[in-house]
Structure formats: structure tokens, C-alpha cells
Amino acid sequence: MGYSTWSDDAYTHLKNDYKSKPAEEIFSKSATEDMSPKGIDVRESRDSDEHPESLAIAVFLDETGSMGRIPELIIKEKLGTLMTTIIENGVDHPQILFGAIGDHISDRSPLQVGQFESGTDELDKWLTSIFLEGNGGGQVMESYLLAWLVAGRHTSIDCFEKRNTKGFLFTIGDEKSWNQVDSGRLKDLMGYPEASDVTDKQLLEEAQRLYNVYHIHIKEGWHGTNPDVIKYWEDLLGERCIMLDDYNAVCETIASIIAIQHGVDLAKVVSKFDATTAGTVTNALTLISQTAVIANTPDEGIIKL
């Protein structure tokens, strides 16, 4: 996938169409077969004549509760900012996979997986195919570990396989991850004929072999400021747990992380943002901008912190 190209003009047309529509008219009203993980093989990010050096970027959005406003923000306002900021800062061929996670204990559709795409219409298709179930289990935990499962076991990406360059994987939300998925739920959800229990740390390690894995924790509301939730992510990911004070800056934060990891100074990246957004992103990424090192090593991809 990912053979089409991005167009600012096409996105402007989409934005104008979506401007006055509520989320209920934009996003899927139920889980779609195309985004179902059941029976999934691999999602591919491939080089092509149009994109000779593709970079795989997976963005998994929390579709529960108030976090459902982030997919709406992206499609209505920020998809263009995400793509143009990445491209203008030296990554010419981003291929983005949009997915969604919920709660595998209580939700009907706790994992939804799109395809890696570069074109405006294709990115719009997969983003708006997300079913904003809006449920969650009320236990301060969602199934972010399922994003790591997909990345580690069900993607094939040329940036890593051809150039030993890790892709990027972002989960976004305001709760902890469940620390385990049992074998029975995996069989039911993924269509596996056989399965074993898996843990968050196990799946994270598998995803990290191929991807620079980040979690963007939205520090808003009770969940977002809960010390136990914050400690969980800091213990698990360290500097790659990004604490973001304002969800409105999520796309700028993603694009800035990718730019920084490719050697661009944070101050240069945020200079294109409005003052409020620039301040929010700078506060969230100061530590990363000070410690990022580009390192081409045989077994680590290009990025080390």
C-alpha cells in the first residue's frame, strides 16, 4: 500500500466538506470488515516509483470516551499539518497507518487496523472508517498493547527490511494499557487457531524491534492526571512516554518527534506553529530533543535514545 501522493489542495476540499458535520456523519457507524483484525495477515509499507524511500508510521487512536474527539480533530483540522510538517522536515515519503484501540475486555471492536497510505483520499478513507465506539470498561485501562501486537507480528515495512531504518508507532490516550491479553480472547479477536497469553511488555518488545514506539499521554481530565497512570507509562517507556498538556497539539507532536529523530532541531520545527502550539510541543518534547541521537547500527535501526 502507500503508492498515492499527498495533496494539500485535496485536503482543503475535504476540510471544507467536513467543517459543519458532526462526528456521527463523518466516521463509520459500526465496525467495518476492512479494519477488522480477524484473520489479518500483514499490513505493508512498500517502496515504489512514487515513494522510493518510504517511512512507515502507525498511529493508533483511542476511540473510547472523550478520546474520540482526537480522530475528529485530525480529520477536520490537523491531517494536513501532520503530513506537511513531516514532509517539510526531511521525510519525503511518509506512509501512515491509522488504527484504533478500545478495551478488549468490554468492547465489541477493541482493535481496528487500516493500511499504510500516502495519499489524501486514502488516508481519509481509513481515518473515517474508524468506529468511535465510545465505550471503554471504566477501569482506567485500555488495550494499547494490541497496537504493539499488530506492529510486531502483522506488519512488513520496507524502511526496516531494506534500509534497517525503524518505523514509528504512536499510541494516544489517557489511561494505562491492560498488562495482558489471554489466549482465548486472542483467538476470538484475531482469528488465531492457536494462541498463548501475551503481556504488554512482551508485545512492546516485539514492536520495538521494528518501530520507534511512543505513547502520547493526554494530560487532561481525571484519567490524564492520575499519578498511577502516568507512572505506568513512565516505567514502561521512559522518555518515549510523551506527556501532552493539550490534545489539540497531537499531530504537531507526532510530526515533531519524527523530525527530531531525523536530525531537525526542535526550535526549527515548531517555528511554523502558532505560539500556543509551539509552546505545548516544546514543553512535551524538550527532553527528547536534548537526548536524541541518530545512530546507524546493524541491529538497532537508525534511532537510539
Can you describe what's shown?
- With 305 residues, this protein is an alpha/beta fold.
- The protein has a single domain (8-304), classed as 3-Layer(aba) Sandwich (Rossmann fold).
- The protein is built from 13 helices and 14 strands.
- It has helices at residues 8-18, 23-26, 69-88, 120-128, 145-153, 158-163, 183-190, 200-208, 221-224, 227-237, 250-261, 266-270, 275-291, and strands at 43-45, 55-62, 94-101, 111-117, 141-142, 155-157, 167-173, 176-177, 180-181, 198-199, 211-218, 241-244, 293-297, 301-304.
- The strands form five sheets. Strands 4-3-2-7-11-12 form a six-stranded mixed beta sheet, sandwiched between helices. Strands 1-6 form a two-stranded parallel ribbon. A two-stranded parallel ribbon has the order 5-8.
- Helix 1 (8-18) packs antiparallel against helix 3 and helix 11 runs parallel beside helix 13 (275-291).
- The longest helix is centred in the first third of the chain and has 20 residues, at 69-88.
- It is globular and about 50 Å long.
- Mean pLDDT is 92; it is low at 293-305.
SSE layout:
Elements: H1 8-18, H2 23-26, E1 43-45, E2 55-62, H3 69-88, E3 94-101, E4 111-117, H4 120-128, E5 141-142, H5 145-153, E6 155-157, H6 158-163, E7 167-173, E8 176-177, E9 180-181, H7 183-190, E10 198-199, H8 200-208, E11 211-218, H9 221-224, H10 227-237, E12 241-244, H11 250-261, H12 266-270, H13 275-291, E13 293-297, E14 301-304
Helix pairs in contact: 1-3, 3-11, 5-8, 11-13
Summarize the structure.
With 305 residues, the protein is an alpha/beta fold. It has helices at residues 8-18, 23-26, 69-88, 120-128, 145-153, 158-163, 183-190, 200-208, 221-224, 227-237, 250-261, 266-270, 275-291; strands at 43-45, 55-62, 94-101, 111-117, 141-142, 155-157, 167-173, 176-177, 180-181, 198-199, 211-218, 241-244, 293-297, 301-304. The chain has one domain (8-304): 3-Layer(aba) Sandwich (Rossmann fold), CATH 3.40.50.
